[in-house]
Amino acid sequence: GFPDTEDASETDLAKHDEEDYVEVKEQMYQDKLASLKRQLQQLQEGTLQEYQKRMKKLDQQYKERIRNAELFLQLETEQVERNYIKEKKAAVKEFEDKKIELKENLIAELEEKKKMIENEKLTMELTGDSMEVKPIMTRKLRRRPNDPVPIPDKRRKPIPQLNYLLTDEQIMEDLRTLNKVLVCIHNALFFPFAPASPSSPEHLPATPTESPVQRFEARIEDGKLYYDKRWYHKSQAIYLESKENTKISCVISSVGANEIWVRKTSDSTKMRIYLGQLKRGVFVIRRRSAA
After folding, report:
1. pLDDT tens sequence across 61-77
2. Would 225 disulfide with which of 17, 92, 232, 288, CB 3.0-4.6 Å?
3. Residue 217 contacts residue 201 (beta carbons within 8 Å)
4. Do 101 and 254 contact (CB within 8 A), yes or no?
C-alpha cells in the first residue's frame, strides 16, 4: 500500500504547482494589460509623464525657432532702414552738387557771352563801325499839291550779332597778316618795277617759313575728352599751353558737346576751349603729372 500512496501524492503536488504557475502568469498578463490601459487613459487625458516630457521639448524648440526668426527679421529691418537713409542722403548730396554745377556753368557761360560782347564792341570801335545809329534830324515841309506821296521808309533791319570763336591774339594776328597783304598789293599796283627786297618787312616769301601747324586728334564721347591718345575727364588737373608758349595750371570743370571748360588754379577764372582749337594746336593739353 505505501508505494501507491507516495506516487499519488507526487502527482497531486506536480499538478498543484502547474496550476499555481498558470495562475501567476495570468495575473502578470492582467497586471500588464491594466498598466497599458492606464497609460492609454493618461495619454488621452494629457497626464502621461512621457507625453508631457516630449511636449515640453517640442515647445522649447518651437519657442527657439520663433525667437531666431524675430531676431532675423529685426536685423533685416535695420539693414533696410540703414540702406534707405544712406541712399536718401546720397540723393540729396547729388542734387545739391548738380545745382552748384549747373549754377557755375550758367555763370561761366554768361561771363563768356559778356566777354564776347565786349570784344565785339571793341572790334567795331577799332574798324570804325558803331552799333549805335544816330537818327538824322530832318525838317518836315508841307507837301505841295503836285509832289508825289512819300513812301514810308522800312525799318532798319537789326544788325545780326556775331559770335567770335577766335581769341583776341588770333584776331590781331589775322589783322597783321591782312595788313601785310594789303601793303604788298599796294606796292604791286603803284610800284610794279620796284625790286622786292628780301629784308623788307613788306616782302612775303613764296613759301611760308613757318612750319605747318601740328594737328591733334580730339573728340568728346560719353562726357570725356579723347585728346592726343589720352582720355581726360571732369575734375582732372592739367596744364594748358598756348601758341605763345604760356603754360597755365588748370582743372577741367566740365565737358560739353563740342567744347570743354577749364578753371585756372591761380585765380579760379574759367575758359572755354573748343575742339577745333585743340585739333589745330591753338591750345595744347598736358597731364599735370606728365607735364
Report:
1. 999 999 999 999 999 99
2. 232
3. no
4. yes
Pairing of strands 283-287, 237-242: antiparallel
Which are the contacts of 240, defined by CB distance < 8 A and separation ≥ 6? 247, 248, 250, 262, 271, 273, 283, 284, 285, 286
- pLDDT higher than 50, residue 291: no
238 CB-contact burial (10 Å; exposed 0-12 / middle 13-18 / buried 19+): buried
Cβ atoms within 10 Å, residue 218: 20
The answer to whether the predicted template modeling score (pTM) of the entire model surpasses 0.85 is no
Q: How far apart are CA 186 and CA 189, in angstroms?
A: 5
Q: Are the CB atoms for 253 and 203 separated by under 8 Å? A: no
Pick left, alpha or beta for residue 223 (phi over 0 → left; psi -120 to 50 → alpha; otherwise beta): left
Sign of CA pseudo-dihedral 219, 220, 222, 228: positive
| Grid cell in block for residue 286 | 598736358
Whole-angstrom distance, CA of residue 8 vs CA of residue 16: 12
pLDDT of residue 190: 57
Nearest to 232 by CA among 284, 268, 171: 284
Q: Give the pairing type, strands 230-232 and 237-242.
A: unpaired
For 284, residues 6+ apart whose C-beta sits below 8 A from its C-beta are 216, 240, 241, 242, 278
pLDDT band at 111 (very low <50, low <70, confident <90, very high): very high
Average pLDDT, the chain: 79
By DSSP bridging, strand 247-255 and strand 237-242 are antiparallel
Average pLDDT of span 81-87: 95
